[in-house]
Amino acid sequence: MLGRILAGLRVIDLTQNVAGPFCTQILGDMGADVIKIERPGTGDDIRQWMPPAIGGESSTFLALNRNKKSVCIDISTPEGSELVRRLAASADVFVQSMRPGSAESHGLGFEALSAVNPKLVYCAISAFGENGPLAALPGYDPLMQAFTGIMSVTGNEGESPARVSVSLIDMGTGMWSALGIVAGLLQRLRTGTGLKVNASLLDTGMSWMSVFVASYLATGSLPRKLGSAMAMTAPYEVFRSADGHVFIAAGNDRLFRKVCEALDCGALAEDARFATNTARVLARKELHDKLEEKTREHATTDIVALLRKIGAPCSELNNIAQSLEHEQIKASGIIADLPVRAADHHQVVLTPLLMDGRRSDRNDPPPALGADTDLFLRALGIDDSEIQMLRQRSIVA
After folding, report:
1. Catalytic residue among 74, 141, 170, 203, which?
2. Please, are residues 31 and 4 in contact by the beta-carbon 8 Å criterion?
3. What gap in Å lies between CA 5 and CA 358, rounded to an integer?
4. Would residue 170 show up in a list of annotated catalytic residues for this protein?
5. What is the set of domains in the chain, with CATH numbers?
6. Which of 61, 83, 138, 218 is 20 to 30 A from 379 via CA?
7. Contact 24, 95 (CB under 8 A)
Protein backbone atom coordinates (compact mmCIF):
# COMPACT_ATOMS: atom_id res chain seq x y z
CA MET A 1 0.00 0.00 0.00
CA LEU A 2 2.71 2.53 0.93
CA GLY A 3 4.33 2.23 -2.50
CA ARG A 4 1.04 3.05 -4.22
CA ILE A 5 -0.64 5.58 -1.95
CA LEU A 6 0.43 8.52 -4.19
CA ALA A 7 0.26 6.54 -7.43
CA GLY A 8 -0.95 8.62 -10.37
CA LEU A 9 0.41 11.88 -8.95
CA ARG A 10 3.18 13.64 -10.85
CA VAL A 11 5.88 15.63 -9.03
CA ILE A 12 8.22 18.10 -10.74
CA ASP A 13 11.40 18.16 -8.65
CA LEU A 14 13.55 21.25 -9.13
CA THR A 15 15.73 20.67 -6.06
CA GLN A 16 19.27 19.57 -5.32
CA ASN A 17 21.62 18.70 -2.46
CA VAL A 18 19.81 17.06 0.50
CA ALA A 19 16.58 18.61 1.80
CA GLY A 20 14.62 18.78 -1.46
CA PRO A 21 15.78 15.44 -2.88
CA PHE A 22 14.97 13.73 0.45
CA CYS A 23 11.47 15.23 0.29
CA THR A 24 10.83 14.04 -3.26
CA GLN A 25 12.35 10.61 -2.56
CA ILE A 26 9.75 10.18 0.20
CA LEU A 27 7.03 11.07 -2.30
CA GLY A 28 8.51 8.65 -4.83
CA ASP A 29 8.66 5.88 -2.25
CA MET A 30 4.95 6.50 -1.67
CA GLY A 31 4.17 5.98 -5.34
CA ALA A 32 4.41 9.43 -6.93
CA ASP A 33 5.92 9.82 -10.39
CA VAL A 34 8.88 12.13 -9.69
CA ILE A 35 10.55 14.01 -12.55
CA LYS A 36 13.89 15.39 -11.40
CA ILE A 37 14.94 18.46 -13.39
CA GLU A 38 18.74 18.78 -13.52
CA ARG A 39 21.32 21.05 -15.12
CA PRO A 40 22.71 19.72 -18.41
CA GLY A 41 26.24 18.43 -18.01
CA THR A 42 26.55 18.42 -14.22
CA GLY A 43 23.12 17.73 -12.75
CA ASP A 44 22.45 17.86 -9.02
CA ASP A 45 25.51 19.10 -7.11
CA ILE A 46 25.59 15.97 -4.98
CA ARG A 47 26.37 13.84 -8.02
CA GLN A 48 29.88 15.25 -7.51
CA TRP A 49 30.00 14.71 -3.74
CA MET A 50 32.71 12.04 -3.85
CA PRO A 51 34.34 10.19 -2.20
CA PRO A 52 32.72 7.98 -1.11
CA ALA A 53 31.41 6.50 -4.33
CA ILE A 54 29.63 3.29 -5.31
CA GLY A 55 30.24 2.09 -8.83
CA GLY A 56 31.62 5.52 -9.71
CA GLU A 57 28.53 7.34 -8.43
CA SER A 58 28.21 9.51 -5.34
CA SER A 59 26.90 7.42 -2.46
CA THR A 60 25.12 10.54 -1.16
CA PHE A 61 23.26 10.97 -4.45
CA LEU A 62 22.32 7.30 -4.45
CA ALA A 63 20.95 7.60 -0.91
CA LEU A 64 18.55 10.43 -1.78
CA ASN A 65 17.30 9.95 -5.33
CA ARG A 66 15.67 6.56 -5.85
CA ASN A 67 12.28 6.27 -7.58
CA LYS A 68 12.85 9.29 -9.83
CA LYS A 69 13.33 10.11 -13.49
CA SER A 70 16.06 12.52 -14.64
CA VAL A 71 15.36 15.23 -17.22
CA CYS A 72 18.14 17.71 -18.07
CA ILE A 73 16.87 21.21 -18.85
CA ASP A 74 18.73 24.52 -18.58
CA ILE A 75 16.20 26.76 -16.85
CA SER A 76 18.50 29.78 -17.22
CA THR A 77 17.33 29.98 -20.83
CA PRO A 78 13.84 31.18 -21.79
CA GLU A 79 13.29 28.00 -23.77
CA GLY A 80 14.32 25.83 -20.83
CA SER A 81 12.06 27.63 -18.38
CA GLU A 82 9.18 27.28 -20.83
CA LEU A 83 9.74 23.52 -21.03
CA VAL A 84 9.54 23.24 -17.23
CA ARG A 85 6.37 25.35 -17.21
CA ARG A 86 4.85 22.99 -19.74
CA LEU A 87 5.75 20.01 -17.57
CA ALA A 88 4.28 21.75 -14.51
CA ALA A 89 1.05 22.53 -16.36
CA SER A 90 -0.06 18.91 -16.02
CA ALA A 91 1.68 18.09 -12.73
CA ASP A 92 0.17 17.70 -9.27
CA VAL A 93 3.17 18.90 -7.23
CA PHE A 94 6.05 21.27 -7.93
CA VAL A 95 9.01 21.37 -5.51
CA GLN A 96 11.87 23.85 -5.78
CA SER A 97 14.76 24.80 -3.51
CA MET A 98 16.02 27.94 -5.23
CA ARG A 99 16.78 31.15 -3.35
CA PRO A 100 13.66 33.25 -2.71
CA GLY A 101 12.88 35.22 -5.84
CA SER A 102 14.95 33.06 -8.17
CA ALA A 103 12.12 30.79 -9.28
CA GLU A 104 9.96 33.84 -9.89
CA SER A 105 12.66 35.41 -12.07
CA HIS A 106 12.49 32.33 -14.31
CA GLY A 107 8.70 32.35 -14.48
CA LEU A 108 8.54 29.34 -12.16
CA GLY A 109 7.05 30.94 -9.06
CA PHE A 110 3.78 29.90 -7.47
CA GLU A 111 1.72 32.69 -9.01
CA ALA A 112 2.94 31.97 -12.55
CA LEU A 113 2.50 28.21 -12.35
CA SER A 114 -0.82 28.22 -10.50
CA ALA A 115 -2.20 30.57 -13.14
CA VAL A 116 -1.90 27.78 -15.72
CA ASN A 117 -2.44 24.91 -13.27
CA PRO A 118 -4.78 25.97 -10.43
CA LYS A 119 -4.64 22.49 -8.88
CA LEU A 120 -0.87 22.59 -8.39
CA VAL A 121 0.49 22.04 -4.88
CA TYR A 122 3.67 24.13 -4.89
CA CYS A 123 6.45 23.67 -2.31
CA ALA A 124 9.27 26.19 -1.87
CA ILE A 125 12.23 25.08 0.26
CA SER A 126 14.66 27.78 1.38
CA ALA A 127 17.40 28.39 3.91
CA PHE A 128 16.11 31.34 5.97
CA GLY A 129 12.53 31.51 4.70
CA GLU A 130 11.04 34.05 2.31
CA ASN A 131 10.95 37.02 4.72
CA GLY A 132 13.47 38.85 6.88
CA PRO A 133 16.91 40.41 6.34
CA LEU A 134 18.65 37.09 5.56
CA ALA A 135 16.00 35.66 3.23
CA ALA A 136 18.15 35.93 0.10
CA LEU A 137 21.15 34.12 1.59
CA PRO A 138 22.05 30.50 0.89
CA GLY A 139 22.27 28.01 3.73
CA TYR A 140 23.47 24.51 4.47
CA ASP A 141 22.83 22.11 7.32
CA PRO A 142 25.94 22.87 9.45
CA LEU A 143 25.50 26.61 8.93
CA MET A 144 21.93 26.40 10.16
CA GLN A 145 22.96 24.24 13.12
CA ALA A 146 25.21 27.12 14.09
CA PHE A 147 22.59 29.79 13.44
CA THR A 148 19.70 28.17 15.31
CA GLY A 149 21.77 27.29 18.39
CA ILE A 150 21.99 23.53 17.91
CA MET A 151 25.81 23.65 17.99
CA SER A 152 25.69 25.63 21.24
CA VAL A 153 24.15 22.66 23.08
CA THR A 154 26.01 19.84 21.29
CA GLY A 155 29.13 18.21 22.70
CA ASN A 156 30.78 18.37 26.09
CA GLU A 157 31.08 21.44 28.30
CA GLY A 158 34.36 23.28 27.81
CA GLU A 159 35.01 21.79 24.38
CA SER A 160 34.83 23.47 20.98
CA PRO A 161 31.44 23.72 19.24
CA ALA A 162 30.38 20.54 17.47
CA ARG A 163 27.74 19.87 14.85
CA VAL A 164 25.37 16.94 14.98
CA SER A 165 26.93 14.67 12.36
CA VAL A 166 23.55 13.60 10.99
CA SER A 167 22.12 16.17 8.53
CA LEU A 168 19.12 16.54 10.78
CA ILE A 169 18.14 20.01 9.53
CA ASP A 170 18.31 19.08 5.85
CA MET A 171 16.52 15.78 6.28
CA GLY A 172 14.07 17.24 8.77
CA THR A 173 13.20 19.98 6.27
CA GLY A 174 12.65 17.29 3.65
CA MET A 175 10.28 15.50 6.00
CA TRP A 176 8.34 18.69 6.84
CA SER A 177 8.12 19.50 3.13
CA ALA A 178 6.74 16.06 2.30
CA LEU A 179 4.23 16.35 5.15
CA GLY A 180 3.18 19.79 3.95
CA ILE A 181 2.76 18.52 0.39
CA VAL A 182 0.59 15.59 1.48
CA ALA A 183 -1.49 17.99 3.60
CA GLY A 184 -1.78 20.26 0.57
CA LEU A 185 -3.01 17.36 -1.56
CA LEU A 186 -5.66 16.58 1.07
CA GLN A 187 -6.73 20.22 1.11
CA ARG A 188 -6.97 20.13 -2.70
CA LEU A 189 -9.42 17.24 -2.41
CA ARG A 190 -11.68 19.51 -0.36
CA THR A 191 -11.32 22.73 -2.33
CA GLY A 192 -10.35 21.64 -5.83
CA THR A 193 -7.45 24.09 -5.90
CA GLY A 194 -3.78 23.89 -5.02
CA LEU A 195 -1.78 25.98 -2.59
CA LYS A 196 1.75 26.98 -1.67
CA VAL A 197 3.76 25.15 0.99
CA ASN A 198 6.84 26.82 2.49
CA ALA A 199 9.57 25.03 4.44
CA SER A 200 12.94 26.36 5.53
CA LEU A 201 16.09 25.08 7.17
CA LEU A 202 15.77 27.84 9.77
CA ASP A 203 12.26 26.81 10.82
CA THR A 204 13.32 23.17 11.04
CA GLY A 205 16.35 24.04 13.15
CA MET A 206 14.24 26.13 15.52
CA SER A 207 11.65 23.35 15.79
CA TRP A 208 14.37 20.91 16.88
CA MET A 209 15.30 23.45 19.57
CA SER A 210 11.74 23.67 20.97
CA VAL A 211 12.56 22.13 24.36
CA PHE A 212 15.70 24.25 24.77
CA VAL A 213 13.77 27.39 23.83
CA ALA A 214 11.10 26.54 26.40
CA SER A 215 13.75 25.97 29.07
CA TYR A 216 15.45 29.27 28.34
CA LEU A 217 12.20 31.22 28.33
CA ALA A 218 11.21 29.58 31.62
CA THR A 219 14.49 30.23 33.43
CA GLY A 220 16.40 32.95 31.59
CA SER A 221 19.45 30.67 31.74
CA LEU A 222 21.23 29.41 28.65
CA PRO A 223 21.26 25.61 28.34
CA ARG A 224 24.60 23.90 28.97
CA LYS A 225 26.35 21.31 26.89
CA LEU A 226 25.79 17.95 28.56
CA GLY A 227 27.47 15.49 26.21
CA SER A 228 25.22 12.45 26.03
CA ALA A 229 23.01 13.55 28.94
CA MET A 230 19.57 15.14 28.92
CA ALA A 231 19.02 18.30 30.96
CA MET A 232 15.62 17.42 32.43
CA THR A 233 16.21 13.95 33.85
CA ALA A 234 18.93 11.76 35.35
CA PRO A 235 20.42 9.25 34.96
CA TYR A 236 19.89 9.59 31.23
CA GLU A 237 23.33 9.34 29.62
CA VAL A 238 26.31 7.21 28.63
CA PHE A 239 28.34 5.37 31.27
CA ARG A 240 31.66 3.61 30.90
CA SER A 241 31.63 -0.16 31.18
CA ALA A 242 34.50 -2.60 31.59
CA ASP A 243 34.91 -2.83 27.80
CA GLY A 244 33.16 0.20 26.32
CA HIS A 245 30.06 2.25 26.99
CA VAL A 246 26.39 1.77 27.81
CA PHE A 247 23.51 4.24 27.67
CA ILE A 248 21.14 4.08 30.62
CA ALA A 249 17.83 5.97 30.57
CA ALA A 250 16.03 6.00 33.92
CA GLY A 251 13.39 8.65 33.32
CA ASN A 252 11.42 8.19 36.55
CA ASP A 253 11.87 7.13 40.16
CA ARG A 254 10.64 3.58 39.55
CA LEU A 255 13.16 2.97 36.77
CA PHE A 256 15.94 4.56 38.81
CA ARG A 257 15.25 2.16 41.64
CA LYS A 258 15.32 -0.79 39.22
CA VAL A 259 18.67 0.30 37.78
CA CYS A 260 20.17 0.67 41.24
CA GLU A 261 18.95 -2.75 42.33
CA ALA A 262 20.23 -4.40 39.15
CA LEU A 263 23.66 -2.82 39.54
CA ASP A 264 23.85 -3.81 43.23
CA CYS A 265 23.77 -0.25 44.50
CA GLY A 266 20.24 -0.13 45.91
CA ALA A 267 21.32 2.27 48.64
CA LEU A 268 21.51 5.06 46.07
CA ALA A 269 17.76 4.85 45.56
CA GLU A 270 17.30 5.47 49.30
CA ASP A 271 19.73 8.40 49.39
CA ALA A 272 17.91 11.73 49.82
CA ARG A 273 20.31 13.35 47.34
CA PHE A 274 18.87 11.11 44.61
CA ALA A 275 15.34 10.51 45.87
CA THR A 276 13.55 12.47 43.12
CA ASN A 277 14.28 13.32 39.52
CA THR A 278 14.76 16.98 40.43
CA ALA A 279 17.29 16.02 43.10
CA ARG A 280 19.11 13.71 40.70
CA VAL A 281 19.35 16.41 38.04
CA LEU A 282 20.87 18.81 40.56
CA ALA A 283 23.34 16.12 41.72
CA ARG A 284 23.96 14.70 38.23
CA LYS A 285 27.78 14.62 38.42
CA GLU A 286 27.90 12.87 41.78
CA LEU A 287 25.22 10.39 40.72
CA HIS A 288 27.00 9.69 37.45
CA ASP A 289 30.26 8.92 39.23
CA LYS A 290 28.63 6.56 41.71
CA LEU A 291 26.73 4.64 39.04
CA GLU A 292 29.81 4.47 36.83
CA GLU A 293 31.77 2.82 39.63
CA LYS A 294 29.32 -0.06 39.21
CA THR A 295 29.05 -0.10 35.41
CA ARG A 296 32.83 -0.24 35.04
CA GLU A 297 32.79 -3.58 36.84
CA HIS A 298 30.80 -5.26 34.04
CA ALA A 299 30.99 -5.81 30.29
CA THR A 300 28.56 -3.83 28.18
CA THR A 301 26.66 -6.90 26.98
CA ASP A 302 26.18 -8.07 30.57
CA ILE A 303 24.82 -4.69 31.70
CA VAL A 304 22.44 -4.49 28.73
CA ALA A 305 21.17 -8.01 29.33
CA LEU A 306 20.71 -7.35 33.04
CA LEU A 307 18.85 -4.06 32.64
CA ARG A 308 16.66 -5.21 29.75
CA LYS A 309 15.62 -8.22 31.80
CA ILE A 310 14.12 -5.94 34.46
CA GLY A 311 12.64 -3.49 31.93
CA ALA A 312 15.11 -0.65 32.41
CA PRO A 313 15.79 1.21 29.11
CA CYS A 314 19.40 0.93 28.01
CA SER A 315 21.56 0.34 24.96
CA GLU A 316 25.01 -0.64 23.92
CA LEU A 317 26.87 2.10 22.00
CA ASN A 318 26.97 0.76 18.44
CA ASN A 319 28.95 2.01 15.49
CA ILE A 320 27.33 1.81 12.04
CA ALA A 321 28.80 -1.62 11.29
CA GLN A 322 27.53 -3.04 14.58
CA SER A 323 24.12 -1.46 14.03
CA LEU A 324 23.75 -2.97 10.56
CA GLU A 325 24.66 -6.43 11.90
CA HIS A 326 22.22 -6.32 14.80
CA GLU A 327 19.34 -8.76 14.54
CA GLN A 328 16.84 -6.03 15.46
CA ILE A 329 17.91 -3.87 12.51
CA LYS A 330 17.70 -6.89 10.21
CA ALA A 331 14.25 -7.77 11.53
CA SER A 332 12.98 -4.23 10.97
CA GLY A 333 13.50 -4.46 7.21
CA ILE A 334 14.68 -0.85 7.10
CA ILE A 335 17.75 -1.87 5.06
CA ALA A 336 17.13 -3.20 1.55
CA ASP A 337 19.05 -4.16 -1.56
CA LEU A 338 18.99 -1.56 -4.33
CA PRO A 339 21.26 -2.59 -7.21
CA VAL A 340 22.62 0.37 -9.16
CA ARG A 341 24.16 0.48 -12.59
CA ALA A 342 27.72 -0.37 -11.60
CA ALA A 343 27.18 -2.12 -8.25
CA ASP A 344 24.91 -5.15 -7.91
CA HIS A 345 25.23 -5.39 -4.13
CA HIS A 346 24.21 -1.92 -3.04
CA GLN A 347 22.00 -1.36 0.01
CA VAL A 348 19.97 1.62 1.18
CA VAL A 349 17.93 2.80 4.15
CA LEU A 350 14.25 2.76 3.24
CA THR A 351 11.60 5.33 4.14
CA PRO A 352 10.82 4.74 7.84
CA LEU A 353 7.10 4.11 7.44
CA LEU A 354 4.97 0.99 7.28
CA MET A 355 1.35 0.66 6.22
CA ASP A 356 -0.53 -2.51 7.04
CA GLY A 357 2.79 -3.78 8.36
CA ARG A 358 4.62 -3.37 5.05
CA ARG A 359 7.21 -0.98 3.70
CA SER A 360 7.12 0.57 0.26
CA ASP A 361 7.79 -1.90 -2.54
CA ARG A 362 8.95 0.86 -4.91
CA ASN A 363 12.68 0.47 -5.26
CA ASP A 364 13.89 1.85 -8.59
CA PRO A 365 17.56 2.90 -8.56
CA PRO A 366 18.50 6.58 -8.88
CA PRO A 367 18.50 7.70 -12.52
CA ALA A 368 21.48 8.38 -14.73
CA LEU A 369 21.83 12.06 -15.55
CA GLY A 370 19.33 12.96 -18.27
CA ALA A 371 18.21 9.36 -18.75
CA ASP A 372 14.59 10.36 -19.29
CA THR A 373 14.88 13.71 -21.06
CA ASP A 374 13.70 12.50 -24.47
CA LEU A 375 10.81 10.52 -22.99
CA PHE A 376 9.24 13.52 -21.28
CA LEU A 377 9.96 15.97 -24.09
CA ARG A 378 8.18 13.65 -26.52
CA ALA A 379 5.26 13.54 -24.07
CA LEU A 380 5.03 17.32 -24.51
CA GLY A 381 4.62 16.81 -28.25
CA ILE A 382 8.20 17.74 -29.14
CA ASP A 383 9.50 15.65 -32.02
CA ASP A 384 12.97 14.14 -32.28
CA SER A 385 14.30 16.78 -34.68
CA GLU A 386 13.35 19.57 -32.28
CA ILE A 387 14.82 17.64 -29.36
CA GLN A 388 18.06 17.34 -31.32
CA MET A 389 18.06 21.08 -31.95
CA LEU A 390 17.46 21.81 -28.26
CA ARG A 391 20.30 19.44 -27.38
CA GLN A 392 22.70 21.11 -29.84
CA ARG A 393 21.93 24.46 -28.17
CA SER A 394 22.56 22.87 -24.70
CA ILE A 395 19.05 23.73 -23.57
CA VAL A 396 18.43 20.07 -22.82
CA ALA A 397 20.69 17.06 -22.39
Report:
1. 170
2. yes
3. 13
4. yes
5. 2-208+336-392 (3.40.50.10540), 236-322 (3.30.1540.10)
6. 61
7. yes
